[in-house]
Amino acid sequence: MIDITSKESIIEILESKDTNRFNRLIEQAYNVKVYNLGNKVYLRGLIEISNICAKNCLYCGLRSGNSFVSRYELTDSQILEAAEFAYRSNYGSLVLQAGERCSSVYVDRVTKLIGSIKDISNGRLGITLSLGEQSYETYKNWFEAGAHRYLLRIESSNPMLYSKIHPMDNNHLWENRLSALNDLKNIGYQTGTGIMIGLPGQSYQDLAEDLLFIKNFGIHMVGMGPYLRHSQTPMGKEEHTTTDLTLTLKMVAILRLMMPRINIAATTAMQVVDPIGRERAIFAGANVIMPNMTLADVRKEYQIYNNKPGIEDDALITKSKLEENLSKAGIEIGWGEWGDPQAYFDK
Ligand code: SAH
Ligand code: SF4
After folding, report:
1. Given phi > 0 = left and psi -120 to 50 = alpha, else beta, which region is 178?
2. In whole angstroms, what is the distance from residue 28 CA to residue 25 CA?
3. Residue 62 sits in which domain range?
4. For the segment 152-197, what is each residue's pLDDT rounded down to a tens digit?
5. Which ligand is nearest to the CA of 129?
6. Is residue 231 in a domain?
7. What is the Cα–Cα distance from 260 to 254, expressed in whole angstroms?
8. Ligand 2 pocket, 165 CB below 6 A?
């Protein structure tokens, strides 16, 4: 068995250049996934409801300081149309993602939307939110309206590194992110977090500590991916070499060995580094994919990083391309299932 019991042993795996050892790690992680969760991959239709954001993260193309972006907000009927598409396509659940906004008008609108999505799907579509940091009350209202999962990445478990990639204004503190994650878990959400891999100034020790943070927090779902430059951001203007997918695949595989019963997403950023990156992540222990259901007209405006794939496609094309790739790779889809993280039910 591969040793993942200490920080030192995890760092050693991350640093190792030994291909045989890498292949053994990937194979073991895949086997652990199949043993614990089966071999299916679950799909969540991703709807990017707006690119308007109050935050100014130094790496992200949607940051409020980026005046080159044309800002959009989908109407309720556009969102419900996309949700219906996801429902008709037999996706068990969907993800509503957007930049961060906290006004009461916005918050109430999201609450109503959650109710409407439940209505059009007879309560059958699971709803995941990825709408940034919100107050305890907002999280609770959205939960009571019917959202049952929330994704909020810690981005880095190292508060020093976190402060280097986020501006100091706007109360954008690591401690607030942590406390938001605690709120989500206490309210009862299936709670997801994650990090970016290959950030400037990030060490193998940081990455090993990220994995231990995720484990110790008792998270239910994880989405990690390579950091990618966006040319209209302060960090994107710096020289930086993107890490190849190997490091990301190692992170996925080690996490799967550490937490056999959580959900791990194969993320879009993996597909930027390698066209079949998401499929490779599935074979390294991931079990969730979030195909983009956003209307084609606004996709090009939701560029958190450069070269985001599929921005010319509509939901139907995204769906058929993904299904074809998965079936070519022999990966089975859990149609119509919520695919809850088993770890959520372990007490
Ligand atoms: N505003 C919400 C949701 C949208 S951003 C939020 O921040 O939670 C979702 C994720 O995209 C972020 O958590 C971040 O990890 C990722 N992201 C943003 N910019 C990125 C970049 N340049 N490279 C890789 N991932 C990025
Ligand atoms: Fe806004 Fe999220 Fe991008 Fe930060 S990562 S700027 S919160 S959309």
Report:
1. alpha
2. 5
3. 41-203+214-238+287-340
4. 999 999 999 999 999 987 779 999 999 999 999 999 999 999 999 9
5. 1
6. yes
7. 10
8. no
Hey, whose CA ends up nearest to atom 8 of ligand 2? Answer: 99
Number of structural domains found in the chain = 1
Contacts of 74 (CB under 8 A, 6+ apart): 47, 49, 50, 82, 294, 295, 298
Task: Kindly report the protein residue whose alpha carbon is nearest to atom 11 of ligand 1.
Answer: 304
User: Which ligand 1 atom sits nearest the alpha carbon of residue 228?
Assistant: 23
139, 181, 196, best to mutate for ligand 1 pocket (most atoms within 8 Å of CB): 196
pTM attached to this predicted model: 0.96
Distance between CA atoms of 82 and 96, rounded to whole angstroms?
A: 10
* Ligand 1 binding pocket includes 69 (Cβ within 6 Å): no
Q: pLDDT tens-digit profile of 287-299?
A: 999 999 888 888 9
166 lines ligand 2 (CB under 6 A): no
Task: Flag whether 293 is in a domain.
Answer: yes
Taking the C-alpha atoms of residue 312 and residue 188, their distance in angstroms, rounded to an integer, is: 37
Domain for residue 291, yes or no? yes
* pLDDT confidence tier of residue 135, bands split at 50, 70 and 90: very high
Q: Which of 73, 156, 303, 304 has most ligand 1 atoms within 8 Å of CB, for mutation?
A: 304
Residue 243 placed within a domain: no
Dump pLDDT digits (tens) for 217-235.
999 999 999 999 999 999 9
Write out pLDDT tens, residues 42-97.
999 999 999 999 999 999 999 999 999 999 999 999 999 999 999 998 988 999 99
CATH number at residue 301: 3.20.20.70
